[in-house]
Amino acid sequence: MASIEEHLIRLHPEDNVALARQLLTTGLNVTGTPLSADIPALHKVALTDIPAGGRIIKYQQTIGIASQAIKAGEHVHSHNCVVASISKDYDFCSVVKPTNYLPESQRSTFQGYRRANGKVGTRNYLGILTSVNCSGTVAHQVANKLNAALSLQPESSIDGAVALVHGTGCGMRSSGDALTICSAYYVAMPCTPISAVCC
User: Fold this and answer.
1) Is 154 inside a domain boundary?
2) Which residues pair with 82 in a beta bridge?
């Protein structure tokens, strides 16, 4: 007998039909009985004898009723499978299974923080901030040097550095994102807008 897995796709252990992986030719024995006719690829094959009026089960669900007796190994299609009214049990989530999570000790973690909106961010990149346009080139050089050094340390917890510069000359506007960032991060040298200059 040929291997069932080699020729058929059974979507659920309780299904009484399976799908042909490719054209199955007459005489091939995949269910214990030689096929009496060719079965096209992706068409259904009876895995067991199904009596007339019996349910045809696929995905563990009734997809039709046998209009005549169907023997194991026979082609199941519109010539012997019909739609009929059946009783249904909509018992929602009755067979739900709890998720088998990994123990805490085996879970992957990262250094991050929770944002105000509930999402999570990471601090794996270093930001090189500037308060004036003049230091833009230096900020880029510092970021490049750090990235070159980090490339030699693949196990580092820091992924890289990025230069965050602005282009508003020797100062910045007295309001807006640039000043907010400047004020928040330059704790050692607080930025106070004096004549639109961030010192």
Assistant:
1) yes
2) 65
Q: Residue 195: its pLDDT value, please?
A: 34
The enclosing H or E element of 127 equals strand 125-129
The one-character DSSP state at 185 is H
First-to-last alpha carbon distance for the chain, in angstroms, is: 84
Angle 151-154-159 from CA coordinates, rounded to 5° = 70
* Whether 77 and 4 share a structural domain: yes
CB within 8 Å of 54: residues ≥ 6 apart? 65, 66, 70
* Other C-beta atoms lying within 10 Å of the C-beta of residue 94: 7
- The answer to whether residues 199 and 172 touch, using CB atoms and an 8 Å cutoff, is no
The model's pTM is 0.46
Q: What is the pLDDT of residues 103-145, one digit of tens each?
A: 988 888 777 788 889 888 877 788 888 877 788 889 999 999 9
